[in-house]
Amino acid sequence: MNKDELIAKLDLQPLEGEGGLYSAIYRDELSNAIYFMVVSPDFSAWHRLPQAELWLHLSGDPLLLHTIENGQLVSNQLDQEGKTLSYQVPANTWMAAESLGSYSLLSCFLAPAFSTMELIGKDELISQFPNIANLPELFHE
């Protein structure tokens, strides 16, 4: 299935603020899951959630998932060819993602269920982490 067929089949819609496309898989009071697609040149902008989030690569090109953990930039490549299909982002951790090709399709899982997301601007993130020289510029400003 190509990118456009996946977008139609999964009824993916733009995700305001963060970027990317998404649709709900399920949601209850305890947890939720979504399909999430990053289509280049778009990306998932720097944001954080109060819950831990599991990212699972499903298809398409590799995805580069960036997090800031313990004051350091961590970049994980999620794909079908390598050894890393998934990554769990700790709660309250800044994260951003970009496809390394034309598109990347993932599922994202949260427990407890999604409640809120905090976006951050470039100047504020840089002021919080001045020691990170190679911070990916993934901002929708």
Order of helices and strands: HEEEEEEEEEEEH
> In the CATH hierarchy, what is the class?
Mainly Beta
Low-confidence segments, given as residue ranges, are: none
- Residue-averaged pLDDT: 96
CATH topology type:
Jelly Rolls
Structural class: mainly beta
- Quick one: overall form? globular
The total tally of domains equals 1
Helix content: under 10%
**CATH homologous superfamily assignment:** Jelly Rolls
Biggest beta sheet summary: 6 strands, antiparallel
Strand content: 35-45%
Report how far apart the termini are: 33 Å
Q: How many beta-strand segments?
A: 11
Q: What would you report as the Rg, rounded to the nearest angstrom?
A: 14 Å
Organism: Actinobacteria bacterium BACL2 MAG-121220-bin52
InterPro entries: Cupin_DUF985 (IPR009327), RmlC-like_jellyroll (IPR014710), RmlC_Cupin_sf (IPR011051), YML079W-like (IPR039935)
Protein name: DUF985 domain-containing protein
Pfam families: Cupin_5
Structural topology:
Blueprint: H1 3-9, E1 13-14, E2 21-27, E3 32-39, E4 44-48, E5 53-60, E6 63-69, E7 72-78, E8 86-89, E9 95-99, E10 103-110, E11 118-119, H2 122-128
Antiparallel strand pairs: 1-2, 2-3, 3-10, 4-9, 4-11, 5-8, 5-10, 6-7, 6-9
Commentary on this structure:
10% of the residues lie in helices and 45% in strands. With 141 residues, the chain is mainly beta. The protein has one domain (3-128): Jelly Rolls. The strands form two sheets. The protein has a six-stranded antiparallel beta sheet, with no helix packed on it. The chain is globular and about 40 Å long. It comes from Actinobacteria bacterium BACL2 MAG-121220-bin52. Residues 5-116 form the DUF985 domain. Pfam families: Cupin_5 (PF06172). This is DUF985 domain-containing protein. InterPro entries: Cupin_DUF985, RmlC-like_jellyroll, RmlC_Cupin_sf, YML079W-like.
